[in-house]
Amino acid sequence: MLQKKICMVGAFATGKTSLVSRFVYSIFSEKYLTTVGVKIDKKLLNIQGRDLNLIIWDLYGEDDFQKLRLSYLRGSSGYLVVVDGTRNQTLEKALDLQQRVEATIGKKPFILVLNKSDLQDEWEIDRDEVSSLTQKGWTAIETSAKNGLGVEDIFQTLAQKMLEE
User: Can you tell which superkingdom this protein's organism belongs to (predicted)?
Assistant: First the structure.
């Protein structure tokens, strides 16, 4: 069986842990829990008839006080850069993180995850900025850990990209 490590990166409180919980355990909690260090989960996927064991590293959110430990990224086959659609500054942080991750582990498949799509009325993310990123070759997918929209899609799409490498 093929095994691949992926990392969840992004600013604090973007919904990384909630996305993993929705994907791995099919649950969502309104309670906010800060990730301390790293939380590791596994999920078995079948991609085009091939079994793939995803090892998901949910890394603590980066903010002004806590910088991402780049050593956690070693061995990753891909990663998800998670943004909170209701906080524009999380997109700025995501752009910076993506460059730092790439500088650390090289060019690997990744997806820009625009989370909290269930809160469209509070959306701050500039769709033109996202559009310019997709024109540069980025894959961007809207998700909601709360209602499950797009959650399976981000992991399936990333797994597919990793297998194509």
Answer: Bacteria
| Order of strands, sheet of 140-142, starting from the edge strand that comes earlier in the sequence | 38-47, 50-59, 2-10, 76-84, 110-115, 140-142
What global pTM score does this model have?
A: 0.92
Dump pLDDT digits (tens) for 101-121: 999 999 999 999 999 999 999
Q: What are phi and psi of 68, to 5 degrees?
A: -65, 130
Task: For tokens 């649950």, name the residue.
Answer: 27
Q: What share of the chain is helix, strand, coil (3-state, %, to 5)?
A: 35, 30, 35
Q: What is the CATH number of the domain that holds 54?
A: 3.40.50.300
Return the H-helix or E-strand segment holding 133.
helix 127-135
Number of domains in the chain: 1
CA-angle at 3, arms to 69 and 91, nearest 5°: 40
Domain that holds residue 14: 2-164
